[in-house]
Amino acid sequence: MKLNYLLYLFYIAFAFVSCKNDAKKTDLEIVTIETTQEKKLYTSSKIEAEFNDPKVAAVYNGYIELKTALVNTNSELAALACDKLMVAYTNSGNANEETAKAIEKIKNDTNVETQREAFVTVTNSVEEMLEGALKSGTIYKQFCPMAFNNTGGYWLSNSKDIQNPYFGDKMLKCGRVASEIK
Known about the structure:
Blueprint (H helix, E strand, L loop, with lengths): L1 H22 L26 E2 L2 H18 L3 H17 L5 H12 L3 H19 L3 E3 L2 E6 L2 H4 L2 E5 L18 E6 L1
Antiparallel strand pairs: 1-2, 3-4, 3-5
Helix pairs in contact: 2-3, 2-5, 3-4, 4-5
């Protein structure tokens, strides 16, 4: 019986000492994980269309550069693209004040969402310039139904592949080809 009593006391003492060490661990261990995720840059496809007027071609090239910057959600590149686009647009002979203001707004605003809103006006103007301006090739008018709180938004592209300038990489493939300009 003494042996049982001693074993019982030994067991209690062992359990008390073992549990005591773990019971006081209240500090949380913080682990920091570093990721090196690079943002993929999207590019536009080569412009296959040929234009009757080199001035319209210059405007379209500037427009595509701006669209690509917005696809990449890069407000600085969008502002830089506006420099080229503004020069080409004013030299085209088809410039209007509303579109010039929209290009300036994109250039001077660092908020990419504001730039995207102004891009709608630029798209409409460039589309009007393209009517009857193509010698050969196709330009695709694309549409995203979810842009601007589901009111939708159009843009122009060299390719049938969707690269959405209104959502960038958040919803890169959201959209469809609405029509073709030939």
